Input
Amino acid sequence: MNCYETLFVVKPTLTEEETTAQIEKVKAVLTKENAEILATDDMGMRKLAYPVQKNNRGYYTVLFYKANGETIAELERNLKINEEVIKFLTVRYTKTKEMTQFNKLVAAASKKGELAETSVEETPVVVEETATTVEPTSEEAPVAQTTEA
Output
C-alpha cells in the first residue's frame, strides 16, 4: 500500500453540518475501499487563489491515508461527481525523503486534531452579564441657563 495525501475544497455556502457530512462522505469512500486513514487536517475556511465556480473562498480539508492505486481512482471519481467539492488534489509519497515528510505531516495533523478535541472538551464557556451605567462627565452634562428678567 502506498501513502497518499488528498486535499479537497468544499463550497463555502454550506452550513457547518453539511460541510462535516461532505468530509465524512469522502472518508466513507476511503474506508469502503479498505484504505487506512492516518490523519485528517481540517484547515477551515480560506481564500482561494482565484475564483472557482464563482467562489472566492472554500473549506479546505486534507486527508492522509494508506491505500492501493485502485482506491485513488474510485475516490477521485466520487470527488468529480460531488457538486459540493470545487477542487481536489491527490499526492502519492514514494521516496524515502518524501516518506519522512509524509510522517511529519501525519504527526502534525494528528497532534492538531488531538489539541482541538481536548480544547473543546476541557474548556468550559462562562458568560457573565454585567450591567454598566454611564454617568455623564462635566463636559457632557448639559449646562443650565437661567435668564433674569
